[in-house]
Amino acid sequence: xxxxxxxxxxxxxxxxxxxxxxxxxxxxxxxxxxxxxxxxxxxxxxxxxxxxxxxxxxxxxxxxxxxxxxxxxxxxxxxxxxxxxxxxxxxxxxxxxxxxxxxxxxxxxxxxxxxxxxxxxxxxxxxxxxxxxxxxxxxxxxxxxxxxxxxxxxxxxxxxxxxxxxxxxxxxxxxxxxxxxxxxxxxxxxxxxxxxxxxxxxxxxxxxxxxxxxxxxxxxxxxxxxxxxxxxxxxxxxxxxxxxxxxxxxxxxxxxxxxxxxxxxxxxxxxxxxxxxxxxxxxxxxxxxxxxxxxxxxxxxxxxxxxxxxxxxxxxxxxxxxxxxxxxxxxxxxxxxxxxxxxxxxxxxxxxxxxxxxxxxxxxxxxxxxxxxxxxxxxxxxxxxxxxxxxxxxxxxxxxxxxxxxxxxxxxxxxxxxxxxxxxxxxxxxxxxxxxxxxxxxxxxxxxxxxxxxxxxxxxxxxxxxxxxxxxxxxxxxxxxxxxxxxxxxxxxxxxx
Length: 497
Ligand code: UN1
What we know:
Blueprint (H helix, E strand, L loop, with lengths): L5 E2 L1 E3 L2 E3 L6 E6 L2 E10 L3 H20 L2 H17 L1 H12 L3 H21 L15 E9 L2 E5 L7 H12 L3 E5 L5 H13 L7 E3 L4 H10 L3 E7 L2 H12 L4 E5 L5 E4 L5 H13 L11 E5 H17 L18 H16 L3 E4 L3 E2 L9 E2 L2 E4 L6 H4 L6 E7 L2 H9 L3 E2 L1 E5 L3 H10 L4 E4 L15 E2 L11 H5 L1 E9 L13
Parallel strand pairs: 1-5, 7-8, 7-10, 8-9, 10-11, 12-13, 12-20, 13-18, 17-18, 20-21
Antiparallel strand pairs: 2-3, 4-5, 6-23, 14-17, 15-16, 19-22
The structure holds 2-aminohexanedioic acid.
């Protein structure tokens, strides 16, 4: 039996129980008998304390030179490197995905932390010539103040780091509410920052449910920027809650990403990509390749190979290194997947493989679902348009690249798309015409790196991007500064006429 410690909230540099004294259990989705720990079940009172701590810490943190803030982040990244294996195991235990993937998750947090540590010595603004003589002008970034971060369970360490590190390097202080299914990875991330010397109050954490802890955080008058990753339905609520106070709001939501396989594609490569894109992380990525659009010429052959690979995937506990696909996160998610399997069959999609939960033998204690493929899908079917967030892939036959692009774009989401082709002209046309925030050539829809912008169009986002320098725009305000050293009044647009 593994230890099952009690974790509090992190407020003002101290680990504290929820004001109500309530706790919730965090259990392994692959084995409900395994208790990972108990976590504070927070409410508005805890959020209030966390925001107060963030408010108090803000002036000093902001005044610390950015390169010094960067040194703390750099040290935190080094600690994450040292503890990568331990933190990856914790992430697999609480989230379920296989160890190779949680190692990738922690690595993504490491990458982001190093990247943003470097921004301590950049954060470039502009200098530009004035239209007047003896006048200097420049733009600089200012922190917004307190950042309220609401993060999902599918990348339990990477996504908190995507939000926290840019916020911190710019001089903001943070209150984070991690997903109730995966608070331990946020605790681990915070411990690395604490050990690296982050001053008390700069990062605070309240664990708990969305309505109980997330809602008071996003509506708190002192929280200047809310950054949320999760479903489009919840994102809409966050957006509405922020709108009336003109609060900055960054949203990263759903996807219905597509791999387009052309008749000249390397089919081995395309099948490899579709298996990884569709079933990696049990399909629980906002970048998951849940649609494969196939040129009719290769439809049969691709389908046969893809289905036999899907059938052969070993599903089980992510801690077992021979397992290729872990459980889904919880019972409601499993039930949602089952309901989509039913919807797809009702609307006439052909179930080619899978379609059932796994609940016997090694799967008896967790939330497992077979890798599932629907064939001959019409692009208008719900299974071709709506996000399932599970190991379910729809195959859609088309007759041309133009049709593939039209079908590819005909969903309400716009996160990631991919094309498999050996024809450079086709690749460039798709690259130009797919209205998504991310595009891949001869690679699946998943696998974004931290030094390019991450995010999507339409119902996937609200115009912002995470990662890369673009993330700095989310967590800062620009200030344009004009210094007139002429000693006379110079009127812009008038005296230079
Ligand atoms: C997500 O699915 O929420 O590109 C994030 C990828 C990962 C990040 C996914 N680097 O699939």
